[in-house]
């Protein structure tokens, strides 16, 4: 991918749904992504499912929660490549 000139990430308008108002910016993550990954990686899917609602907090589902985390990760590495985060809504 050394010839990649830019990245457009397709997120969702619902990635920040716990907020009342959503601006065109990247928000801080709900949790530390690396720490969460280290905790969950060794766990079985069954055990992760048991604590899912605790992990996702105010997000309605894992889809919107992980989209929010992905936006943060992409933003963190955006100094290496021009990045755009697109948040389409249904409609």
From TrEMBL:
Q: What residues does the Thioester reductase (TE) domain cover?
A: 1-90
Q: Source organism's superkingdom?
A: Eukaryota
Task: Tell me the protein family, please.
Answer: Belongs to the fatty acyl-CoA reductase family.
User: What are this entry's molecular-function GO terms?
Assistant: alcohol-forming long-chain fatty acyl-CoA reductase activity; alcohol-forming very long-chain fatty acyl-CoA reductase activity
GO cellular component term of the entry, any: peroxisome
Q: What does this protein do?
A: Catalyzes the reduction of fatty acyl-CoA to fatty alcohols.
- Keyword line: Lipid biosynthesis, Lipid metabolism, NADP, Oxidoreductase
Its Enzyme Commission number? 1.2.1.84
GO biological process, any: long-chain fatty-acyl-CoA metabolic process
Q: Which PANTHER family match?
A: FATTY ACYL-COA REDUCTASE-RELATED (PTHR11011:SF60), MALE STERILITY PROTEIN 2-RELATED (PTHR11011)
Catalyzed reactions: a long-chain fatty acyl-CoA + 2 NADPH + 2 H(+) = a long-chain primary fatty alcohol + 2 NADP(+) + CoA
What's the name of the protein? Answer: Fatty acyl-CoA reductase
Task: Please tell me whether the keyword Nucleotidyltransferase is annotated for this protein.
Answer: no
């Amino acid at each position: 991918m050394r010839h990649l000139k830019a990245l457009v990430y397709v997120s969702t308008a619902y990635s920040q749904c716990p907020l009342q108002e959503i601006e065109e910016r990247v928000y801080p993550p709900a949790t530390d992504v690396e720490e969460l990954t280290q905790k969950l990686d060794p766990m079985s899917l069954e055990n992760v499912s048991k604590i899912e609602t605790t992990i996702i907090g105010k997000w309605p589902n894992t889809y919107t929660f992980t989209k929010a985390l992905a936006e943060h990760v992409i933003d963190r590495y955006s100094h290496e490549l021009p990045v755009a985060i697109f948040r389409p809504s249904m409609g």
